[in-house]
Amino acid sequence: MAPVRVEDSSLFFGYSLDVHWERSTGDIDYIEFTSVERGSLADKAGLRAGDHLLEVDGKPATGITQAEFVALMSRDFTGGQTISYRFTVGRGFFFRRMDLVLRVRG
């Protein structure tokens, strides 16, 4: 199934995450979306509170360190460019891919 693609220029993805750590290793055990703002880019893509973030840009978001996750989510940008993420999100026994794209005003 093709990813859901949403674009916006609001500079607002509109979600909050809760990161859960594996105590013995210090690696990320799972990441849960705790809130999604109504009308935001995340909402338009279909994200819901309780969804789990599985991958970012095809790379696992779990089983990695905090520093690796920060590097995975970091983006450099200047005006006139875009910031994009391809998320694979789990909801129950199902998963979906979505592209979140922000157009940064110059």
Describe this structure in words.
The structure is a single chain. By secondary structure, the protein is mainly β. It has a single domain, classed as PDZ domain (Pdz3 Domain). It is built from two helices and seven strands; from the N terminus they run βββαββαββ. Strands 1-7-6-4-5 form a five-stranded mixed β-sheet. β6 (about 80-90) and β7 form a beta hairpin. It is globular. The chain starts with a strand and ends with a strand. The relative contact order is 0.28. The mean pLDDT is about 85.
Task: Quickly describe the structure.
The protein has helices at residues 41-45, 66-73; strands at 4-8, 15-21, 28-36, 52-56, 59-60, 82-91, 94-103.
Main features:
106 residues; mainly beta; Pdz3 Domain; two-stranded antiparallel sheet; 12% helix; 45% strand
Which secondary structure elements does this structure contain, and how are they paired or packed?
Elements: E1 4-8, E2 15-21, E3 28-36, H1 41-45, E4 52-56, E5 59-60, H2 66-73, E6 82-91, E7 94-103
Parallel strand pairs: 1-7
Antiparallel strand pairs: 2-3, 4-5, 4-6, 6-7
Q: Please state roughly what percent of the residues sit in beta strands, choosing from under 5%, 5-15%, 15-25%, 25-35%, 35-45% or over 45%.
A: over 45%
Number of H- or I-type helical stretches:
2
Strand order of the largest sheet: 1-7-6-4-5
CATH structural architecture: Roll
Q: Globular, elongated, flat, extended or rod-shaped: what is the shape? A: globular
- What is the number of independent domains? 1
Q: List the uncertain runs.
A: none
Can you give the helix content as a percent range? 10-25%
- The radius of gyration is 14 Å
CATH superfamily: PDZ domain
Number of strands: 7
